[in-house]
Design goal:
Elements: H1 2-30, E1 43-48, H2 52-60, E2 66-72, E3 76-78, H3 83-87, E4 97-99, H4 100-104, E5 111-115, E6 117-122, E7 127-131, E8 142-146, E9 149-152, E10 157-158, H5 166-169, E11 171-172, H6 176-193, H7 200-206, E12 208-212, H8 216-236, H9 238-241, E13 245-249, H10 261-273, E14 276-279, E15 283-287, E16 291-295, E17 301-305, E18 308-311, E19 315-316, H11 319-326, E20 353-355, H12 368-404, H13 408-427, E21 440-445, E22 448-455, E23 458-464, H14 465-478, H15 482-498
Parallel strand pairs: 1-2, 1-9, 2-5, 9-20, 11-18, 12-13, 12-18, 13-14
Antiparallel strand pairs: 3-4, 6-7, 7-8, 10-19, 15-16, 16-17, 21-22, 22-23
Helix pairs in contact: 2-12, 6-7, 12-13
The structure holds flavin-adenine dinucleotide (FAD) and 1,4-dihydronicotinamide adenine dinucleotide (NAI).
The site of flavin-adenine dinucleotide has 33 residues, from α2, β2, α3, β6 and α12.
């Protein structure tokens, strides 16, 4: 009995300690202390963007040595890997957002956060011009500021290839508002199909969901739509659920080209079981209000009626990126994006512009993993850069005083000191970026995920339920804050217990 008592007491003490420390950490996080003000003696780093690259840079940067200004039209970080889960209501939108100020308020020196869209960059005069393009504007809504260093991390936009009707009629899956729009449209299709007197043909059209692009975004979204159908819609729309059809259209011969053959086959067979149709070697030529026009493998043109089209056909550079590249035509001719060196420096500039993430054209895929590693690498390199700048300043100062010193003995001492600083500078090297691939993961629906993980000198491919739990734990640990981890975990629990919400927002 006394043993049971001890176990009982230990349990309650540990529970209390756990709750207490959780409360302490969260409250400490909520009430950041005072910060150092901007220092006119320090160099100014302007960061464009608040996505993977920029946030990772801000998280790692030691702001003691720099004045930092962040400019982004979005005043938050969006955890894109879980965006398809938001589109079907598995997760609440706010669970995968982190306000940029939550990051910057915890830095040693105050960081200015400006919600604005950069319009142009002048690499010669080292300035950025930006505008407030939000719905509510004050009397001043555009300005230009100088920078000493520019961290360019504006990402990319959805590639439409100029295909007619895509912008007007399709939903995208890139930003938070895209996921919310898709959710509304999907539920609207269901309600319209349930309208009394609807013909069978119209019901079939309204309930046909077409996903364009067999890359990871299209595959994950198709899997999430399938889960929504199986786990919730069958209960709340029993007369319609059996008629919902999901078609994934891909121009290439297979989906998920970045995964191993075994995992591609596994995905194809899982989709077959889930009754998700995959049309490969099929190119979407036009998106109309109620249909998509397809060029089939046999070159025939088919018009496929549908209620919703989700466009997930890849990325292209933003206009501001193209404009910036056009200012440096000889060094920046890559159509995929900004060419950078191994220190993230934009080619053709004087070492003051650094570009990271999806806006760049490097040997790495445009992924969050790459942008995150580039961001934290760059912040570490900035810490080294401060040391180098300091040595350079010290050298200049010593050379100046050597020139001004009249006594030989004293001059000799100063020259020796300058030589020692020179030697330190010669040895000083900022290490180049080296990417460490942690593997590729994707959720394919039906509680199954696939993973290509680096293992020894090769790779390890796995798929199924265990991989799904691995996928979940990998993403929950990648989320930047305890707050987001808690919100996502509770959303998963909420969905398991109560299911997804099927009410449509206005
Ligand atoms: P982003 O994260 O897109 O950030 C760009 C930032 O720049 C944004 O804050 C934007 O508001 C801002 N910006 C835009 N224009 C301007 C301007 N003019 N001035 C100032 N700021 C501007 N990758 C993975 O590795 N694993 C995954 O599981 C994964 N899942 C994904 C799922 C989805 C649905 C999507 C869409 C992408 C996914 N990716 C994934 C890819 C990943 O999201 C991108 O590679 C990553 O976001 C790139 O980071 P970034 O910082 O370059 O750009
Ligand atoms: P993507 O570029 O990987 O795939 C787009 C697909 O659309 C391509 O396979 C292309 O052939 C196809 N396509 C283009 N035009 C078409 C048309 N007209 N008709 C039919 N098919 C067409 O794009 P995605 O999936 O948005 O991914 C973008 C980046 O984000 C990639 O680097 C990807 O690796 C990364 N990402 C990674 C994820 C993960 O690791 N789980 C999840 C989502 C994205």
């Amino acid at each position: 009995r006394s043993g049971a008592k001890i176990v009982n007491r230990t349990f309650w003490v540990s529970l209390l300690a756990g709750v207490g420390s959780f409360y302490y950490v969260t409250q400490k996080d909520r009430t950041p202390g005072p910060q150092l003000p901007h220092d006119p003696e320090k160099k100014t780093v302007v960061v464009l963007g608040s996505g993977w690259g920029a946030t990772s840079f801000l998280n790692t940067l030691d702001t003691t040595e720099y004045n930092v200004v962040v400019i982004s039209p979005r005043n938050f970080f969006l955890f894109t890997p879980l965006l398809p889960s938001v589109a079907v209501g598995t997760l609440s939108p706010r669970s995968i957002l982190q306000p940029t100020r939550y990051v910057t308020r915890h830095k040693t020196r105050a960081v200015k956060v400006i919600e604005a869209e950069a319009q142009s960059i002048d690499p010669v005069n080292k300035t950025v011009s930006f505008i407030d393009n939000s719905a509510i504007q004050g009397k001043v809504s555009s300005t230009t500021i100088p920078y000493d260093y520019l961290v360019y991390a504006v990402g990319a936009e959805v590639q439409t290839f100029g295909i007619p009707g895509v912008k007007e009629n399709a939903c995208f899956m890139k930003e938070l508002h895209d996921a919310e729009k898709m959710q509304r449209r999907f539920l609207d299709c269901l309600e319209s199909a349930a309208f009394p007197g609807q013909s069978e043909e119209e019901i079939e059209r309204l309930l046909h969901m077409v996903v364009v692009g067999g890359g990871p975004t299209g595959v994950e979204l198709s899997g999430e739509l399938h889960d929504f159908l199986e786990e919730d819609l069958k209960s709340w729309y029993p007369e319609l659920a059996g008629k919902i059809k999901i078609t994934l259209v891909e121009a290439l011969p297979s989906v998920l080209p970045m995964f191993s053959k075994r995992l591609i086959d596994y995905t194809m067979s899982t989709f077959k079981e889930s009754k998700i149709d995959i049309l490969t070697q099929t190119m979407v030529k036009e998106v109309k209000e109620q249909s998509v026009t397809l060029a089939m493998p046999d070159k025939s043109i088919v018009e496929m009626p549908c209620g919703m089209v989700v466009w997930a056909a890849g990325n292209k550079g933003l206009k501001i990126t193209q404009d910036l590249m056009a200012k440096l035509p000889t060094a920046q001719a890559n159509r995929r994006g900004i060419s950078i060196d191994e220190y993230m420096q934009m080619n053709g500039t004087d070492g003051t512009i650094f570009a990271i993430g999806d806006c760049t054209a490097s040997s790495h895929a445009p992924t969050a993993q790459v942008a995150q590693q580039q961001g934290s690498y760059l912040a570490r390199a900035f810490a080294q850069r401060v040391k180098r700048d300091r040595l350079q300043d010290q050298l200049q100062e010593l050379e100046r005083s050597a020139a001004m010193t009249l006594h030989d003995d004293e001059r000799k001492k100063v020259v020796e000191e300058a030589e020692s600083v020179k030697r330190q500078l010669a040895k000083f090297k900022i290490r180049p970026f080296s990417y460490s691939h942690q593997g590729t993961l994707a959720y394919i629906g039906s509680d199954k995920a696939i993973a290509d993980l680096p293992f020894l000198n090769g790779s390890f491919a796995s798929g199924g339920l265990l991989t799904y739990y691995f996928w979940r734990s990998a993403y929950i640990s990648t989320l930047f804050s305890l707050r987001n981890r808690t919100l996502v975990a509770t959303d998963w629990l909420r969905t398991k217990v109560f299911g997804r919400d099927v009410s449509r927002e206005w």
